[in-house]
Specification:
heterodimer; A: 263 residues; mainly alpha; Cytochrome Bc1 Complex, Chain C; 9 helices; B: 320 residues; Rieske Iron-sulfur Protein; five-stranded antiparallel sheet; 6 helices
């Protein structure tokens, strides 16, 4: 039997080697463990999965969107035909388009469920206010994704819904007319509008959303998940009381009336 | 020793009702903007009062008289003098820590040069990119006159659903529709009513409320592309399928959400052909047909008032 044991150890070591190699040179594995194996409150439950569900919905949109972009043609004369081609001719194109189309609604719905959970649990309170603000910036970006994506099939519904949507923007006081003109790429809806919406939909907004999601996750990893309001455990853990050092940094400002350095 | 701000303990602001009053104030302002100025004024008062109370509440901790930490010995000055340099903050172990705040002229120059050059480069790159993306807002699109073919195609007193290319170089995407009625001659000058089909609410295409005689369709080839002419009898005026806006035969709003009458096209007679020029907006029309008095304004987007106090919301218009 010792022989078999040796074999197993050897195999394990062989599997371990590349991981160790990467870890030694990048620290990525440790970082991943730090990210994934965090401490969460004992009584966190299914409600706390809504954020991850939203992230998953966004990743599905990202994946299917990239594939759709391979077949889609953002030109008024061929946009509609290219969408029909995706739906009817390309292998499993109907599925990918359907996932993207319905996934968009799922994404928005999950965002609002996630938002409701955070609101009702009071998870937006100190020290997580910034994370709420980042999330509140993500909501309009996601809605704009929906608005800009709606034009792309370029059928009658898409066209007139966009006409109405842009004109609603145009009725905003003072800068509204300019905003509408910017969205149209001129004074009339035309080829420029479609190309513009396509670029906004697949480059500008996803980039901004990815950046803000990164910030959102950073803050969650840094601050931890909040326990539900019915939790018996005290919110937050006790910190070791370090002797305060006045004036040593931003988080520890010098008390009023005391200069930072002796004169 | 008193724990200081931001030191360890989470500082939870006490529960407060002021933000709710503040939010109600904002709602009052927004509703008041639509409903009445009095409600908006009440909203402003609510917002200011509750905003002030909220700010006062939230900053009460900071406005408390300064509690100078009482050190073990001596006055406040000895506190700072006696404070040891935080070892973790300096970081560079083994190096002789420079005096706090001491800077070297060369490093200051390099730092400034890096930041300054970086700003210049970022500016050089950003300005054209932003300009490129917002340029179309400020460009005057040039439209040639649209040739609709001989005026004999338009029977006197009958509306014709006329579709044409606004800009032949853009192709079918620029196809627009106008409802055109020949009003006959007044003092030997031909008169036409040329209504744009763009709803003055949010820009959907309005439809004639009455039969459209598809069988009498005329296809006319002109030097600005194909024109199609279909007679119609909009006995009930025009209606918008999107949100139910209704107009009479002169384009005056009769019901629904539109904020003004239908836009119109300027028209010309060129060698016996009807030609369309720019579009313009209309607040309302007095009278009818050839004797109509059209209250004409610069072309404005759908949903924007051209008269009344609401026009001051739209003081500037991008070129059209």
């Amino acid at each position: 039997m010792p022989r078999k044991r040796d074999r197993k150890d050897q195999m394990l070591a062989a599997a371990q080697y590349p991981i160790d190699w990467v870890e030694e040179r990048s620290g990525l594995i440790g970082g991943l463990r730090y990210f994934l194996f965090r401490k969460v409150p004992r009584d966190s439950g299914w409600w706390h999965t809504l954020g991850s569900a939203t992230l998953t919905a966004f990743l599905v949109q990202l994946g299917t969107g990239v594939i759709l972009a391979m077949y889609y043609k953002p030109d008024p004369n061929s946009a509609y035909q290219s969408v029909q081609h995706i739906t009817n001719d390309v292998t499993l194109g109907w599925l990918v388009r359907g996932m993207h189309r319905w996934g968009a609604s799922v994404f928005i719905i999950l965002i609002f469920f996630h938002m409701a959970r955070v609101f009702l649990f009071g998870a937006y309170k100190y020290p997580r206010e910034l994370n709420w603000i980042v999330g509140a910036l993500l909501v309009p970006l996601a809605l704009l994704e929906g608005f800009s994506g709606y034009l792309l099939p370029y059928d009658q519904t898409a066209y007139w819904a966009t006409v109405v949507g842009i004109n609603i923007n145009g009725t905003a006081p003072f800068l509204g007319p300019y905003l509408a003109s910017f969205l149209r790429g001129g004074s009339e809806i035309g080829p420029e509008t479609l190309a513009r919406f396509y670029s906004i939909h697949m480059l500008l907004l996803p980039g901004a959303i990815l950046g803000l999601i990164g910030l959102h996750l950073y803050l969650i990893v840094r601050l931890g998940v909040s326990s539900p309001p019915w939790s018996k455990e005290a919110a937050g853990r006790e910190r070791e009381e370090a002797p305060p050092v006045p004036g040593s940094g931003l988080v520890n400002p010098a008390p009023r009336g005391v200069t930072k350095r002796p004169d | 020793m008193e724990p200081q701000q931001g030191q360890g303990k989470p500082h939870l602001p006490p529960p407060s009702l002021w933000p709710i009053g503040f939010a109600i104030g904002i709602v009052c302002i927004l509703v008041g903007l639509i409903v009445s100025w009095a409600a908006a004024a009440v909203g402003v008062v609510l917002t200011v009062v509750f905003g002030f109370l909220w700010v006062r509440d939230a900053t009460s901790d900071y406005r408390r008289p300064d509690v100078v930490p009482v050190p073990a010995a001596g006055g406040p000055e000895s506190t700072t003098e006696g404070a040891p340099a935080p070892p973790a903050a300096t970081g560079e172990a083994g190096m002789a820590a420079p005096e706090p705040g001491e800077r070297f002229p060369r490093s200051v120059f390099l730092e400034g040069a890096t930041l300054g050059l970086g700003t210049v480069i970022a500016g050089i790159v950003t300005v054209p990119i932003v300009g490129f993306s917002i340029a179309p807002v400020f460009q005057h699109p040039h439209h040639d006159e649209i040739d609709l073919g001989p005026i004999t195609n338009f029977k006197e007193g009958q509306f014709v659903v006329t579709t044409f290319l606004r800009d032949p170089s853009e192709g079918e995407i620029s196809r627009r529709t106008a409802y055109i009625r020949n009003n006959g001659f007044t003092d030997n000058v031909p008169s036409f009513t040329v209504l744009s089909n763009r709803c003055a609410h949010l820009g959907c295409p309005v439809q004639p409320n009455g039969p459209i005689f598809d069988k009498q369709k005329v296809e006319q080839s002109t030097k600005t592309g194909d024109v199609s002419l279909i007679p119609t009898l909009p006995a009930g005026g025009f209606g918008c399928p999107c949100h139910g806006g209704q107009y009479d035969q002169e384009g005056n709003r009769t019901a629904g959400p539109p904020v003004r009458a239908l836009d119109r096209y300027e028209f010309y007679i060129r060698n016996g052909n009807l030609a369309l020029g720019k579009t313009y907006s209309v607040s309302h029309v007095d009278g009818a047909a050839a004797s109509a008095r059209i209250h004409k304004y610069r072309e404005t987007g759908p949903g924007q008032h051209v008269d009344g106090p609401e026009q001051w919301f739209y003081p500037l218009q991008p070129p059209t």
